[in-house]
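Each letter names a residue; the fold follows as tokens. Both lines appear below:
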Amino acid sequence: MLRAVGIYKHLTLGARTAVLVDGKVLLVRHGYVAGWQLPGGGVDPGESAEEAARREVFEETGFAIDGPMTLQGLYHATIYTDRDHVAVFVARAAHESRPFVPNKEIAEIGWFAFDDLPPEMAPGAARRLSEIIEGRPPASKW
């Protein structure tokens, strides 16, 4: 009934990954929004959040995650709607599977030392990295 009258709204789930290797984090800079971000994107139908996180890291950067990932937290992202949720994973090993080529979605990638993050960090990504690096529990909001 709710769908028939257009009231029903779907929740969305995104997945992002903090790829941490040798004291550095892998970040992406989109061509369409300001700030450096954790690689990630939407979870496709039939895909787990972890599968989406691995796929998005590869698609956006050319790096493949090696070994297990841990779930850092599940966040309610309220920037655009009240229906978005983001799962953040931590990966501690990765290798370059194909060279990165700038494109319409991702203009640039980079490895940054924890103590030398770019000043143009997206606020949500900066908060997530701070939680991870400092060992603090995850907040509930993005």
About this structure: The helical segments are 49-61, 123-134. Residues 49-61 form the longest helix (13 residues).
